[in-house]
Amino acid sequence: MTKRLLFLLPVLIFLVVAGYFLWGLGPERDPKNIPTVMIDRPTPGFDLAAVPGVGVPGLATADLGKGQVVLVNFFASWCVPCRAEHAFLTDLAEETGVPLYGINHRDKPEDAAAWLAELGNPYTRIGADPGRAAVEWGVTGVPETFVVDREGRIRYHHRGPLVPDVIERQVKPLLEELRS
Fold first, then answer.
1. Quick check: 69 and 144 in contact, CB under 8 A?
2. Alpha-carbon distances of 34 from 37, 67, 149, rounded to whole Å
3. d(CA 171, CA 105)
4. What pLDDT shows up at residue 149?
5. Which of 47, 82, 99, 152 has the fewest Cβ atoms within 10 Å of its own Cβ atom?
């Protein structure tokens, strides 16, 4: 009986490992869906200088939570997905009238200024982040976007580029709810 169980052991191990990988590859599991602990928490404390040559002021915690719902977008000129979402963010800010604040992450100021001159600057404020602010916000990469409510609490966090489907299904309804 023991010998028979020893022959079945590799099969059982294979079934457990295969089951684990099948569970991990399931269509409802999104590897980009990393839980964030920042939801419903106040924005972290930060004070970022303006990006030279862009023509908009820097960004600090004191600029958030002044009775206005805002979008905060972490971006960089070297980030290809940031370029892809830029037009969608610009349209979203124009269409909704919600201020779009930027945090330029680990970028050369001249590269950020050139990038914004080429694509247009939809940001009302942009802070130059050498990296610490991104850590405080729980950012794992750029682009990432947050919705901050009137009291300065983070209400939504999106990792990766905002695309029209996500904007229509998630961001716009939340903005309407928070602004009403």
1. no
2. 10, 29, 21
3. 22
4. 98
5. 47
Whether residue 64 contacts residue 100, with contact meaning beta carbons closer than 8 Å, is answered with no
What's the DSSP call for residue 180? -
Residues 115-141 have pLDDT tens digits of: 999 999 999 999 999 999 999 999 999
- Is residue 83 a contact partner of residue 56, using CB atoms and an 8 Å limit? no
Could you tell me where the DSSP H helices lie in the chain?
A: 2-24, 80-96, 109-119, 132-137, 164-166, 172-179
Burial class (CB in 10 A: 0-12, 13-18, 19+), 84: middle
Q: In sequence order, which ranges of 27-157 are alpha helices (DSSP H)?
A: 80-96, 109-119, 132-137
